[in-house]
Structures are given as structure tokens and as C-alpha cells.
Amino acid sequence: xxxxxxxxxxxxxxxxxxxxxxxxxxxxPNNYQKEYSTKEIKEKYFSTDEIEQSVLVKTAGRxxxxxxxxxxxxxHIQDEEGIIQVYANDKTLSSDEHEIFLNLDIGDIIGVExxxxxxxxxxxxxxxxxxxxxxxxxxxxxVVKEKDGKIYDAFSDVETRYRQRYLDLIVNSSVRKNxxxxxxxxxxxxxxxxxxxxxxxxxxxxxxxxxxxxAQPFKTHHNALNIPLYLRIAPELxxxxxxxxGVEKVxxxxxxxxxxxxxxxxxxxxxxxxxxxxxxDYKDMMALVEDLFSYLAQKITGKDEVVYGEHTISLKKPWQxxxxxxxxxxxxxxxxxxxxxDENPSVExxxxxxxEIGVDVSKLNTFWEVVDEIFSEKVEPYLIQPVFITxxxxxxxxxxxxxxDNKHIVxxxxxxxxxxxxxxxxxxxxxxxxxxKRFLEQVxxxxxxxxxxxxxxxxxxxxxxxxxxxxxxxxxxxxRLVMLFTxxxxxxxxxxxxxxxxxxxx
RNA sequence: GAGAUGCUAGCUCAGUCGGUAGAGCAACUGCCUUUUAAGCAGUGGGUCCCGGGUUCGAGUCCCGGGCGUCUCACCA
Length: 506
Description:
By secondary structure, the protein is of the alpha+beta class. It has helices at residues 8-22, 38-45, 95-102, 158-163, 165-171, 173-195, 236-244, 282-301, 324-332, 347-356, 367-379, 432-447, 458-466, 478-486; strands at 57-69, 72-78, 83-88, 109-118, 124-135, 145-147, 150-152, 199-200, 206-207, 219-222, 227-231, 249-257, 269-278, 305-308, 311-314, 320-323, 387-393, 409-417, 420-421, 423-427, 471-477.
């Protein structure tokens, strides 16, 4: 609400604000020494039938419900961990504070000193002796009511919820819980990695070449050096430089930026963990993924499974393993392995096979694009329980090592859960000459019109020439992992402030 | 980027055939000193997303725009 065109409620709140000031109180005091959270009060004073009545406990929180009755009344205050009821009347409070108490609004933040007691109905409450206004609410918050677990007038407008996430957090307790859980998951991931002696590092987010993945970068400019810079699309090539530098177990858990579409599964900035381990390969990464997910399940749900939508997902290891071409054959009957004797398998034959099973590939130009389209259409949606899809085509994996004696297939896997790719891992290519050749192939594909390829990075080739130990590497999309554990259907529900187009003021 | 769909009071939503704006909660006033979706009585509150058009008259019909959501496409 603008100050030029105030609503009725806005004007009333300003009047209340002035009234508090007239009583000689500061409606926005500098500090308040909160002694207990509402949860601690309940644990300390209400866990037994006998309640110490004579003590004064001091807490603070935001009012989200009030029930005045003549000169007395109840308010419910909420803090980060819970709620507690506060009772007051004209005898428990000084006359000034009683005046303030009667005029409290839903949304006000108050401090309370009061005696613990139970009401007739048994609810844990505080009989207020002192009330302090800590922050006067001016713009009203949505009022959500609840009875018998049923929620009335839920604050549900998604746009407002995302744009004013603070309201969402105040009013929707499940939102608050999910973001606390996100933090816990990330802490547990770090615990897991650190315990296994992986070193957490921070590599550049601003890079002069945006490589390491095939995606459109955000572009910016450094004034003093007068050079273009890109927000990283992946930390991969820097982390592998660390392998060259003798760091044997390393990870980075932080933001990547991709200048691409926004959807329920994509936000332009998203969180990724990349892991590299020297003297290991993709199979070691597979074991790491299994261990990590079942560790998280134990820590978060206490079981080795998690409920997502209508599915109960068992994260118990070992997970299933299926080869990329194998599972395509399983689901569609098409055996693309039989085409691989050729150096250049026929696009036309792949296309006619795709048409037979009703997959539209009219816009695609290469054999592997056609195969991948079939995979996305006919395989991906059915990968509900955890499965490792292995043996990816080299054509789409320019940083991965070939399977020995196979020119088309690399040592790579992607873990899938609930039809979603949860990560990507491979045996890291450490042959500088082969890597250079692969980069050049990418450059050729770009010249041929591919708009997303992995950029050549000559300095990285130079690093490989110093020698990188054989290594396994892994990337895990943290937002999607959190979605799994919080049963969220949109990535916006696990990112506090998802990107929205700014709303212009008139 | 394409298609579908939505935008009305602080929140959740009605609004018929085009006739000048409604409910519940919230707010305000009065009553009410253990309530809990508190209750009872009364009152106020609107840029109907924005801009055009048609019409005597538009929340409603038409055109353009904005923002969101869903699905698809790209991607993790």
C-alpha cells in the first residue's frame, strides 16, 4: 500500500502507532532480551501437570490470532519454533500496557513477560505482566484460521507468496518447515562429504570462458580489466584443475547460473554440488551417490525411503543399473546397439524407428539427438524408483572417458528418481589430446548451428598436459534433491526468492 | 518461445442476460474478564490488473498490453 493512497486499514494503523508514541512508548525499540522461545517455555514449564505459577518468563513473537473479551483477551504469538497463548486483563497489566494490549493487531511483534498457567481447556498460556511493542504492524498480514487441522482462507496466491515470501513464511508453516529442512539437508550433505575427507572449495563464479557444461551463460563486464566475464554455468573445469594441483578429494556446493528458461524444474540460478575424486572412476561415484542418498534419507526421514507425491521411493542401496541403450530397448523394443558398428550411424534409420513408436523427431538432425528424444519421451517418465542410467553416448559427453575399446559410449551415468535427472557423473577425461579433439568437435557443432555446446578452454588443456590423475566426477542438482525430500512439485518451493519478472510501478 | 488459463476489498472468493459492487474472514464502534475458526449487534472499506473500442450504459463484450500459473519446447 502506497503512502500516497493509503487504505483505511493503513490509516488506522498509523493512528495506533501514534497512540503508542503518545503513551511514551517506542513502537520500534532497539532491542529486546528474549529469554525463551515458545517451544522452550512449553518444554520447561508445561511438560508436567504441576505448573510453577510464580515465575516470570520472557518471550517474544508475532501475533497471528487474537480473541478479545471485554477488558480481558487472548492473543497467540508465533516465533520461529512454535506458538504460545498469552492472556491479559486490566489487573495483570499496567493501564498503559493494558491500553496497548486491547489495541494489538494481528501482525504486531510483541515481547511478553508472564506467568505460565493452563486455561480451563488445558492450553499452555502465559498470564502477561508486562507487554512491550517490539514492532508495530502497519501493512496487515493475511489471516489464516484453522480448526481440526482444516485451514480456512489459506494464503494461497502463488505470485504474492513468491513476491512477498516473508508473508508466506509468516503465515504458511509448511513453507517455513521446508526451508528449514533445505538448510538441514545441505548441512548433512556437507557433513557426509567432510566425513569422507573431501575438501570443500570455492572456485570462480565469474569466468572469462563459461565452459564445463552446455548452456547459455549470463554475460557481464569487468571495468578495470576491460574484459567480458560470464557467470559460471559449472565449476567443473576449475575443480579438475585442483585435481591437477594435487587435491585428491574435492567438492563445491554453490550456485550456478544459466541464462535459460524458467519452469517448475528450472531457476536461472540454482544450487549444484560437484565432486571430484582422484584414483577413482564413475563406479566409485555411483557408490557415493547411493551412500549419500541413503544417508540423507536416514537423517531426514529416519528411514531409507521418502514419499514423493503418490510414490514411496526406496533409497536403499544398491540401486538398479540400466544402460542407456539397454533401457531404450527394454521400453521401446528398438535396439540402437545394432547401428553402432558404423562410424556414423544413420540418422534416417533412427528417425524411421522413432516414427514407428510415435515420437516426433522431425526437427532433429543427428543420430544421437533422435535417440535422446526417444529416451526423454519413452523412458525418462517411467524412471520412478532410483536407477542409474549408464553408458551414455560420447557425442553428448565431451568431458567423459570412453569405455575401453568402444568409440561411441563413455563411462558415465545419471541417477534418475521420480522421472527426474538428479545428477550426472563420469570417469573424467584426462588425456589432453583427446580432450582437445573433443572441444574442437564441439566448436564444429557450434559452427554447424548447435547453440549450446561446451566451450573450448585452452588453459584447461594446458593444465591436463601437466597431468591429471584418473578421476571420477559427479554433479548433483541440490534444488531437485531438496524437492524430493520436501515433496515439492515446483523448484520455486525450495528456493526462497525465485526469479520473477519485476512488477513495474505505474 | 507456443498453447491453455487466471487477475474483483488486507486475505479467500462470488458476481446470472451488459444496468452502476457482494459474502466470509480481517478492520472500525458498542457489549462481553478463561477464549481458541470466541460470540452478539452495528459501521466503514473498491483504480473490478492497465490502455483503447463497441454501447445510452462495460467487472461482464471486442482489440492491444502487463503479470502469474499450468502444459509443451530448452535445460540441471
